[in-house]
Amino acid sequence: MRLSALAAGAVGMLIPAFGCATLPRAVPSVEQDAMVVRGVVFHDRDGDGRRDPGEPGLGGVCVSNGRAVAVTDRHGYYELPVEDEMVVFVIKPTNWRPPIDRLNLPRFYYVHRPKGSPELEYPGLAPTGPLPASVDFALYPQPEPHRFSVILLADTQPRDLQEVNYVARDVVSELVDIDAALVFSLGDLVFDDLALHEPLNQVMAQIGRPVYNVLGNHDMNYDAADDRYAAESFSATYGPPYYALNYGPVHFVVLDDVVWEGGGAEHSGNYHAGLGQRQLEFLRNDLRQVPADRLVVLLMHIPIMQIAERAELYALLAERPHVVSFSGHEHVHRQWYLGAADGWPAPWPHHHTTIVAACGSWWSGAPDELGIPHTTQRDGTPNGWCLVDFDGNDYQVSFRAARRPATYQMNIYVPDELGIAEIGQTEVLVNVFAGSERSAVYLRVDAGEWVELQRVERVDPQYQVLYDAYQADPPPAGRKLSRPAVSAHVWSGVLPSGLHAGGHLLTVRSVDQWGRSTTARRIIRVVGDRQAESVNQACGG
Q: Of 91, 122, 286, 340, which cross-links 233 as Cys (Cβ 3.0–4.6 Å)?
């Protein structure tokens, strides 16, 4: 008997829209060779999750045990070495998809834990017993265009059910109508309470797209003695903590770059950014099957620059001209272009983006009129998410602020009123949320000439005002904001001299690395020869 890999997991009822049915219960078998795991990847024509007569095997599909990568023969069969504890998973090929469960979670894996997880505060995996006779993977055909988009979220990070509702109302509700093929959530799905994974999954499922998840440092079993069992609850819900998949012409690799050093049940302990040799071996074997001219997208929680084995990782990527990476963790939005000074060995720079946190400053700050904290990030960026558009090997990254129009891309800081004597010496600051060293930012007053502004590293002035307010007694409502961080995407200039008394229109235009232009406007008043009224604030709001 051949047993679907999905049948061994707690999958339950699958979404009818994806053509899936109830899956059978796993039936363990000792027919497998003790040294290998084998099975077949097949076209599940009737959607029942198991291979029936007339359902052909699929050749050329990659399957991994987390270290080695096998390629199915023309009949769909594969063999891999057995490890005591492992996750066997199929690397989704282009134009095919795995079963998707009722929470829009892809089920592309079989977890082999013969004795189950150790006893932990949050449940891990039940014993799976001996390997089935055959670990099979069902796939279903789907068209995948050359051009498509994915949604990137980072650090949704609710600490309780109220904050799960913030995720739903502030971020997820507006993603339902976004034209995207997949969703990737880049770790810190929750804030230590792993029981919140389930209600969060119920919220994320409403996006209506397959949701692929990354392990974050706040998603770990803190009472695990070391990293070996730190992802047990994560794996019980989401499967392997690192894996790969193809969509259209793009190859995605999800990395687990959080290494738990040990701690205790009191949610204390240490971790660092790392991959380990087993994961590096998987990546090396995976990339061998990916053409050198294919775009590879790395998705992780902690920024790539902090990974302990980054030199080995960079060496694996250095021969590939088309690689881009994304992370969360920092609760700032910043684009990096790594070069020789950063240890990047290729002659072309590596583009890495630490994307905006969905929870911003950990759901802190004063509640708005709907009761949701403004939760502005430490760098002055509003909380939100990113959309990545792919066209073959080309890509473009767009920043989106939560519950704001797509055109909201910057804040302009200048006094509302100022005297004529202050013209020519008053600074204008602009925080371009997705700006980078490759952006150009210009200022124009009324119909005057465009003047290029200079990028500076500066604390966002309005965030500083918000933060300082929490040092007062009594502080404003809401959870105290975190300490300001220097922003890498602030531009500075000076108002031109010669402005007459009256109203003036300031227009700021930002042009990003892809040549896309966004604008914002601010109106000021010049009040004759006297100084501006005391209601002015230096930051200008």
A: 122
Q: How far apart are CA 483 and CA 500, in angstroms?
A: 40
Separation CA 348–CA 218 (nearest Å):
34
User: What 3-state DSSP class applies to 286?
Assistant: helix
Contact 24, 49 (CB under 8 A): yes
Distance CA 30, CA 133 (A): 6
| CB 174, CB 402: distance < 8 Å | yes
Q: Hey, what amino acid is at 15?
A: I
- What are the tokens at 507? 């227009």
Other C-beta atoms closer than 10 Å to the C-beta of 402 total 23
d(CA 359, CA 216): 14
Element (H, E) at 314: helix 310-317
Burial class (CB in 10 A: 0-12, 13-18, 19+), 372: buried
Q: Which two tokens stand for residue 499?
A: 């402005």
Domain at 410-526: CATH architecture: Sandwich (2.60)
- Confirm if 432 and 491 have CB atoms less than 8 A apart: yes
CA distance 246 to 72: 16
Are 358 and 329 a contacting pair, CB within 8 Å?
A: no
Q: Write the DSSP symbol of residue 196.
A: G
pTM: 0.91
Residue with tokens 């679907």: 4
The CA R_g of the chain, rounded to the nearest whole Å, is: 26
Type and span of the H or E element at 221: none
Question: Where along the chain do its domains lie?
Answer: 1-123+130-140, 149-401, 410-526
Residues 76, 223: Cα–Cα separation, whole Å: 41
Give dist(CA 37, CA 439) in Å, integer. Answer: 51
Per-residue pLDDT tens over the stretch 155-167: 999 999 999 999 9
Residue 11: predicted pLDDT: 32
For residue 307, give the amino acid letter: I
- Give the pLDDT of residue 198: 97
270-278: long-range pairs with CB below 8 Å, 24+: 271/217, 271/220, 272/308, 273/302, 273/303, 273/306, 273/307, 273/308, 274/307, 274/308, 274/309, 275/307, 275/308, 275/309, 275/313, 276/227, 276/309, 278/66, 278/67
Q: Estimate the share of the chain in helix, then strand, then coil, as percent rounded to the nearest 5.
A: 15, 35, 50
Quickly list H helices, 102-231. 161-166, 197-204
CA dist 272 and 219 (Å) reads 14
pLDDT digits (tens, 9 = 90+) for 338-366: 999 999 999 999 999 999 999 999 999 99
Q: Which are the contacts of 371, defined by CB distance < 8 A and separation ≥ 6?
A: none
